[in-house]
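SEVERITY: medium
COMPONENT: batch folding queue
REPORTER: lab tech (J.R.)

DESCRIPTION
The queue accepted two submissions in a row. Attaching both inputs and their returned structure tokens so the on-call engineer can compare them side by side.

ATTACHMENT 1
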Amino acid sequence: MNKYSKNYYEIIEKYKSFHKNGIKNQPGISTFLGYSLTKWITKIKEIIEINNCKSLIDFGCGKAFLYNNDFKIADREFHGLSDFWGVNNIHLYDPGVEEYSTYPKGKHDGVICTDVIEHIPEDDVVNFIDGLFQLSNKFIFVVIATIPATKYFDDGTNIHLCLKDQSVWKDIFENFKNKYPEVIQYVYFND
């Protein structure tokens, strides 16, 4: 596990509070459920199949709603994302949620990290991304927001701590291609 700044760990404590107590006018029970993954699940399924993946990490899974609930796609019922993706070995990790706060041990075929990287303090973001690569055998799938969030910390700071243009993010990930040539990168943006 990589080393991070004091600020990084202070931010995690704030997210623990958000998950428990809520944020703005949203109660804790419905805060950061993991819904942002919804629009990407079919794309991720394709990537899993292309890369013949048997194990995944969802790094920053929130409350992992889609993993723990049934849903329908094209009139077919699925018992969570494990069923939809056909992958039984999925490690859910989110340091802000007690039940998912165990850091992954060892590499998995794929690492999914949606709408998380922009929440990482600027000084820690490259180190954080490096940590994602260290956990993957085959691919990383990341979605990064490039605009401010609608939520704020108590001090008025936007919860999207690290906002960059797509071109800057692409350069950052390009730099990791030499270090981790065996890991395929799937990088998308929410604008």
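ATTACHMENT 2
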Amino acid sequence: MAKSNQKSDEPRTLVIRRATAYDVVNLAKMLIAGLEEQAQGIWYPRVPEGDRGKMMSVKYIIDLVDRAVIFVADLNGRLLGCIGCSVDRYPWSDDWMLSNEWFYVLEKFRDSDIAVALLQAMQDFADADELPITGEGKPRFAIMLGIVSGKQTGVKNRFMEMQGYVNGGGNYVRAPQYGPQQNDDSSRA
């Protein structure tokens, strides 16, 4: 039986979803691609160059998949971007926050809305009243992102400000959101 050279008629669908253990290899490949862009200053966090850095990246991802909140942009099985945040407490308060471990979109997809969609997924998780899988109640989380963007600081600053973040001296912070937003004029009498 001959193999067909025709492309599938299935539409290509971008899905933003929580990462699973099955994504570790593809996350590692994506973040190693980010590591290779290190000279441009956009890799976060810093790891050594070469094979040692790649192995540290893989171990780091494996350790985080079980204990962090990670969202991926999945286009029919291909990961185009990801954002990962650890759950932490502020040292000076009892409030919880999501603190970023990485936020990366493949270079040729950076002109799309993938970064916005990944950030929105993390914000939706931070603002949810309950955990998505167990249905258990949880606190609302502030989000703190330390983003390195090389020489594109102005672009990064505008992007984060448009998303509602405040520059806190190297990190971008968004307070937890409580309750529905009232955007209509019907509440004014």
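NOTES FROM REPORTER
The two ends are 73 Å apart (CA to CA).
No errors were logged for either attachment.
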